Amino acid sequence: MSIEVKNMSHIYMPGTPFESAALVDVNLQLHEGEFVGLIGHTGSGKSTLVQHLNGLLKPTSGTLFVYDVELTKKDADMKFVRSRVGLVFQYPEHQLFEETVEADVAFGPKNMGLGGEELTACVKEAIQRVGLDYEAVRNRSPFELSGGQRRRVAIAGVIAMNPKFLILDEPTAGLDPQGRDELLELVQDLNKSGTGILMITHSMDDIARVADRILVIDKGRIVMDGTPGEVFSHVEELEAIGLDVPETSRLRMLLEKEGIELPSDIFTAEEAASYLCKLMGGGSHA
Amino acid sequence: MLNDITVGQYLPGKSAVHRIDPRVKILLVVFYIVAIFVTDVFWMYGVFAAYVLGAALIAKVPLRVLLRSIKPLLFIVVFTFIMNLLLVREGELLLQVWKIRIYSDGIIYAVRLALRLILLVFGTSMLTLTTSPLSLTDALERLLKPLSIIRFPAHELAMMMTIALRFIPTLLEEADKIMKAQKARGADFETGNIFQKAKALVPLLVPLFVNAFRRADELAMAMESRCYHGGKGRTRMRILTLSWVDAAAVAVNLGLLALLIIFG
Ligand SMILES: Nc1ncnc2c1ncn2[C@@H]1O[C@H](COP(=O)(O)OP(=O)(O)OP(=O)(O)O)[C@@H](O)[C@H]1O
Ligand SMILES: [Mg+2]
Predict the structure, then answer these.
(1) Residue A194 CA, ligand 2 centroid: distance in Å
(2) Closest-CA residue in chain A for B181?
(3) By residue range, what is the domain housing residue B221?
(4) I need a labelling partner for B255 at 20 to 30 A (CA). Which of A42, A136, A183, B125 fits?
(5) Does B9 lie in the same domain as B123?
(6) Is the CB of A108 under 6 A from ligand 1?
(7) C-alpha of residue A241 to centroid of ligand 1, in Å
(8) Same domain for A72 and A212?
């Protein structure tokens, strides 16, 4: 098991008038190579939760194990944990600082103690991985790239550390539809090569399509945990905590009322359309 | 880590002290400061201390909070106290140990200056504890307004202060976030000698400044697109009016002034 969280709670600014409980008694297990989606309303504690998973925040109570390191212990090896669990923050392009793209991407691996040819090789691989032309961008300043390119550079900076589990906090926020699709493809690609993924998102259609498992968090508590099919069959509960459901889930609910069943693993409009066409006796739709 | 820094120390409230017009409050504090530095009579310091403590009582400012405000200046108070004690060579010689001589006037000067500094901090703290930073800049702008005749940029100054105050929490939040992001990439801000620590700050400071400039640019555009064009002809959202609280505060201070004139 990669990450295990037991009875974890987090209180911001304890002992002040601004005290607020952001996480309440969270229990959670993340397995090697899984693709997990984390959804929840604004302020539900998503970012707070993921910052615990590589030791950036300390729980107020409870324990957590990351690759067999007990993070709540004083002498926990943070470097090791952070090399295993990569975290891409929201709007990561705002954290670039080096003069060249290459140097910025190299920051993480260098902190991990990498150097020489090994370093160059992993930087090159990471930059190519995120779909940028290594030779064309390596010596450019990150600040003269476009927003979408900058985000790729920032993500490259995290995957260059070769994490076994990659956490992304709303990686598609503020991207155009094409950029969003490309980013999702990149994440899926990483997952296929064995990296575990935990992705925070507000786009239900996307996450239903790509994730193996969905976690729903509400007011600091994990309230649902299951496959996209299971989770998104609870349309009313999700709407009650301010969450959307994928279009296909809504369609499924409407069809159900008419006595027509749409399999729960269909999450794209195309699949739904061709299934329904077949059902109505036609061939596959053109 | 950055949570420890509180910006301004305003304690919101509805007491009479809170409700004194910020312009009046600033002027009263100026009078108070002049007064404690003018008077030489020791028992007058007691009167002023009672005045400040009374105000704190009315405003429900905990004594602990008021006392804490002296902390950043404690070093200066102690330092000037010792300097005065050792360097003043007037009055009677009271004590001589080796080369150190303590004179009676030295004690008087040292105690007087220490009292003045402490009262100064208490008074100004009462101002910032009971007035929101925004009212303060607003009041300052109005008080400085007459100076615009000699082209003093009162409005611009106040606007800059307001914006700075507004963005300090944002900046701290951002610094916290960038720090975490770089830590996630293995950055180490805590260990190492002073040079290593300074160098470790580069990945924090560069993005912080870049983002601050970007934000300033955006803010300027947002303000301009909403027709901001400086202070001229700009109306105000809050109209300040004087009330009986202000009259009462001024009356108390006239009393103090009378004492000051009579007893020096
Ligand atoms: N540094 C902080 N200090 C104090 N309170 C905080 C801090 N960060 C978050 N909170 C509070 O904790 C709660 C959870 O915040 P969190 O950022 O984890 O939410 P989120 O689910 O990521 O929301 P969003 O979708 O808007 O990113 C919120 O109520 C927030 O106000
Ligand atoms: Mg968040």
Answers:
(1) 26
(2) A89
(3) 157-233
(4) B125
(5) yes
(6) no
(7) 16
(8) yes
Contacts of B264 (CB under 8 A, 6+ apart): B39, B40, B41
Same domain for B163 and B111, yes or no, is no
A185 and A281 share one domain: no
* Residue B136 forms part of a structural domain: no
Together in a domain, B164 and B39: no
Please compute the mean of the pLDDT values over residues B115-125 and round it to a whole number: 90
Domain count, chain B: 2
pLDDT value for A253: 83
User: A87 near B184, Cβ under 8 Å?
Assistant: yes
Residues A191 and A211 in one domain: yes
Nearest residue CA, atom 22 of ligand 1? A47
Does the pLDDT value for residue B112 go beyond 50?
yes
| Closest atom, ligand 1, to C-alpha of A44 | 21
Contact B211 A94 (CB under 8 A): yes
Q: What is the DSSP letter of B6?
A: P
Interface probe with B: pick from A78, A82, A93, A97, most Cβ of B within 10 Å = A97
B19 interface with A at CB cutoff 8 Å: no
Q: Tens of pLDDT along A212-260?
A: 999 999 999 999 999 988 898 888 889 899 888 888 888 888 888 888 8
- Report the 10 Å Cβ neighbour count for B48: 21
Q: Is A29's Cβ below 8 Å from some Cβ in B?
A: no
Do A62 and A179 belong to one domain? yes
ipTM of the complex: 0.84
Q: Does A150 touch chain B (CB under 8 A)?
A: no
Residue A161 has a pLDDT of 93
List the beta strands (DSSP E) in A142-266: 165-169, 196-200, 213-218, 221-226
pLDDT digits (tens, 9 = 90+) for B73-106: 888 889 988 888 888 777 777 777 787 787 888 8
**What was the pLDDT predicted at A49?**
95
Domain with A280, as residue range(s), is 246-286
**Of the candidates A13, A111, A158, which has its C-beta nearest B3's C-beta?**
A13
Q: Does B179 touch chain A (CB under 8 A)?
A: no
Whether B104 and B8 share a structural domain: yes
Instruction: For A131-249, list the strands marked E by DSSP.
Output: 165-169, 196-200, 213-218, 221-226
- Same structural domain, A209 and A85: yes
Proximal ligand: closest to the CA of A169: 2
CATH of the domain at A93: 3.40.50.300
Query: Whose structure tokens read 């996209």?
Result: A228
pLDDT at A283 over 70: no
